[in-house]
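Bumping my old thread because nobody answered last time. Still need a sequence for this structure:
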């Protein structure tokens, strides 16, 4: 049986950082996802501050399940690329210092054909990031949803083994018109983190909408079963972007996940 470790993305609670940590513990989370661009910036946290944060987490029996680091542009865009890569590496070191092994970001637009300058740039940069991650003990997890799973799998296959992982986001996939179950099946061996997010397709308007967890079309029991086949042991971290009552809805999402096992 899959061991369900529940995380909460602190930004989803829409509270000040310290209050969000306390609330996540009260809601029964096992871990928290910290935003390294908005919650805490690696370059602004001293060694003393880092020790204090780790103690605060320990006091609340919480772990850092992932660090979010959403860059404004992907690793396929040459403008300011070196600075973006260096900042990503800083976030990976920051994650390791906090006891986490996952940093989540989009990688940019992945070409559908495995050739050309953009493809070569992505492969080169992600190979470099992957080597760095293996040295420091943290892995870049690519957010799903911007492309179909065959395109993402093609990129994974072009990289040295273990260079990057997958942050499976079923809600993102549904909102963008893809199958969450197909993605879990094809990418399952590479999944190192899961965003527990739900969604529906509004056929009348031709677009997708995020919903409260368990109220969309994502078949989470099926997703759990697929990931169990791949021996996934990571977190299911609740992300809720457009809640009218964030703390209430995130708390209900925790209970929804607990009831799945």
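Sorry it took so long. Here it is:
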């Amino acid at each position: 049986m899959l061991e369900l470790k529940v995380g909460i993305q602190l930004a989803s609670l829409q509270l000040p950082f310290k209050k969000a940590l306390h609330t996540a513990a009260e809601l029964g989370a096992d871990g928290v996802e910290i935003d390294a661009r908005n919650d805490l910036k690696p370059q602004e946290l001293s060694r003393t501050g880092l020790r204090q944060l780790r103690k605060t987490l320990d006091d609340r029996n919480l772990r850092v399940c992932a660090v979010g680091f959403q860059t404004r542009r992907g690793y396929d865009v040459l403008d300011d690329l070196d600075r973006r890569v260096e900042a990503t590496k800083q976030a990976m070191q920051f994650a390791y210092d906090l006891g986490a092994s996952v940093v989540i970001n989009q990688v940019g637009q992945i070409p559908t054909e495995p050739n050309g300058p953009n493809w070569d740039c992505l492969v080169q940069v992600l190979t470099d990031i992957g080597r760095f991650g293996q040295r420091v003990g943290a892995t870049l997890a690519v957010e799903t949803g911007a492309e179909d799973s065959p395109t993402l799998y093609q990129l994974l296959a072009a990289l040295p083994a273990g260079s990057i992982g997958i942050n499976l986001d079923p809600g993102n996939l549904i909102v963008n018109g893809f199958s969450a179950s197909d993605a879990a099946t094809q990418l399952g061996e590479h999944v190192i983190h899961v965003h527990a997010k739900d969604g529906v397709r509004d056929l009348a308007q031709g677009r997708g909408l995020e919903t409260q967890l368990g109220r969309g079309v994502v078949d989470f029991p099926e997703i759990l079963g697929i990931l169990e086949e791949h021996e996934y042991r990571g977190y299911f971290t609740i992300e809720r972007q457009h809640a009218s009552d964030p703390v209430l809805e995130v708390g209900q999402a925790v209970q929804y996940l607990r009831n799945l096992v």
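The radius of gyration is 18 Å. Let me know if any region looks off to you.
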